[in-house]
Amino acid sequence: MILSMTGFASVATELAGISLAVELRSVNHRYLDVTIKLPDELRPFEPRIRERLAAALRRGKLECRVALARTPGGGSGITVDESRVHDLAAAAAQVARLVPGMAPLAAADILRWPGVLVEASLPQATLAGEVEALVDTAIAELRDARSREGAKLAGILAARCHDIDAEVARVAPRIPALHAAFVDKLGARLREAGLDPGNDRLAQELALFATRIDVAEEVERLSTHVAEFRRVLAQGGSVGKRLDFLAQELHREANTLGSKSVDAELSRVSLELKVAIEQIREQVQNVE
Question: What is the pTM of this model?
Answer without folding.
Answer: 0.69
